[in-house]
Queue: 2 jobs
Job 1
Amino acid sequence: MEQLVGHRIRLWSAVLSAVALLGLGLFAGRSQAATNVYPAGGSGFTANAEGWTPGALSCTPIALLCTAEAAYDSGAGNPPGSISARTTVTLNLISLFKGNVVWNSPQFTVPIGPIAGASLRLERAFAAGGLVDVEPKGTYTAILRDLSTGSAVPLFSEEVDKADSAFAPRSATASVVGGHTYQVSIEASTAQSTVSLSLLSGTSDLRFDNVGLRVETAEVGGGGGAGGDGSAGGAGGDGGKFSQLSDARLLALLRSASSAPVVLKGNRLFAKVSCPAAVGRACRVAAQGMLNRRKAATTKRTVKVPKGKSKQIVLRVKPKAKKQVAKRKRHLLREAVKAGSAKATLYRSRALIRR
């Protein structure tokens, strides 16, 4: 009898352990939280501006030699390295000045899938510099632009002064949609708050560091669940991954990939086209230079690009478009991409280099 009871106890313990392990496996297969920071893991500016570019710049009154500049500062930051909205006044007696600077982040695409939450974080500091006697004040607004819909949402604004010389964090929640392409903009201004009674000159800096949009997604794991683009999961292995690639997912992957400048040599345009590794298979890319979305500037070239690779192609500029292309600083490239059954067309403006 004692041996029988012991056997039953061991049997039930084994059954309960198996049930517990199965429950954990099912839970893990349903969803796993993932957090990504955009653009490109967040912008710490340790070596350069990391793809951030100046937008509109203005400073008034111009007659009194007031200038606004979107500057990179390698010596200031947390750790050192930051971008700055810099205002310089070289001659001002009694007029009030105001400098305006816009910084725009690289574009990035949020992966398709359920979004658990999002927030924008940055650190800012204000250095009154040589303008401290007129008590300059800085103001800035952090904006999230949805380039897929054309909307722009201000997330937070703040006014700073000479007391805010140390880098301090600020953050706000944001709303994002999987598959949409976004850009972060910081609109900053520095203005004089008291009238100078003597000759005035100097520089002030409103600096920003560690800027990033934190997005929490629920990544579905295991077989039989939803795919990363919200589609139903297929069979395991590479074949299952290929069947899940939708047109929207392919477009999102293409948008998130970085793009190299195009090079103009005579009447030939050299451009690199890529197939993101996340596509999971080779891409067939038909590329063409455009004057606008309707009017072609070059011949068309179709190439097959392995997953995770890039290829350089040569496009011949059409005689009627040569003068227009030669004058431009950026060039529009149309890429019609096919990967398996998924198709997507991407228009991307690239920097133009002449050689």
Note: Residues 15-31, 220-243 have pLDDT under 50 and may be disordered.
Job 2
Amino acid sequence: MTPLSPSLTDFIDQLPKTENHLHIEGALPWELLCDANPHKYSTPPASWKSDFRFRDFAHFESELLGYAGDYFHSAQRYHDCARAVFAKRMASNVQYMEVSFASGCIDFMNLDGSEVADAIRAAVPKGLEVRIFLGIHHSGWTEKMTPILNESLGWENLDGIDLHGSEDIPVDAAAPHYWKKARDAGKFTKAHAGEFMGADFVRYAVEVLGAQRINHGVRAVEDPSVLDLLRERAIALDVCPISNVKLRVASSPENHQIRELLAAGIACSVSTDDPISFGNSLAEEYQMLSEALGFDRTQLIRVARHGFEASLTTEEWKKIYFHKLDQMARSL
């Protein structure tokens, strides 16, 4: 007798996965925020509802920074948050993660960024690979922060840097030099682009900053020459479908750009971005691909594989998970 195929939920649970695009402040588990502020937070936000849409990036950022400001008062809080986040991801068969913490938050909270990176690293459990990034906003090179950003390139537990924040704010003139300096120091460089601004900003991130991977990047579909650029340089996109829908970057789940990107030969992983604001899990991201976009299980395996391909780990380690994914594909 042919064994019954697992349900979609079981299949996604069994799928080895990565999460390559996660903001630690935005991944704060709701229960930790409630425990820290029981009189202020008692019920989950309206933004968790599937039909909710933020008005714009400022609306989203204001809500998220409110949560962060009420919780991340110390490096220990980052440790506690990261430990809970990592445990949840391991329980859902996530094998590799990239998490970022915001330079703006350590600035506002007057925290030692090196201590924050160390605290996050100390929270990593056995069996999970994690890379830690410092997210720098477009205008982050302030008089106070510039020396700290320069020092960060020597932090032992920092693996790379990422460009964060509202895309309509001009990027500081110091950024291109800093991105190159980071690579020279052995740090991996990413950038948020192609979310609220179009394909031209993806081109800027690649050609001017020299970003080695793009977070979001979905609006690259608006310019075939930018798709060509991504293919030529083998630059993957770490896409967050539910975030894109709730922030109106995609008009609906059914019209999300990831299908067009994959058809164009662009490698795309999926992640949750800021689940405290979107109420989403990684399994629900895969579920959206299946239910709204019609991805079959072979295509879901392909997306998971892209996450491992883009990961910053050894080829030997990647081969272990490629083999597991190939086994799942053969069993379909």
Note: The first strand starts at residue 17 and ends at 23.
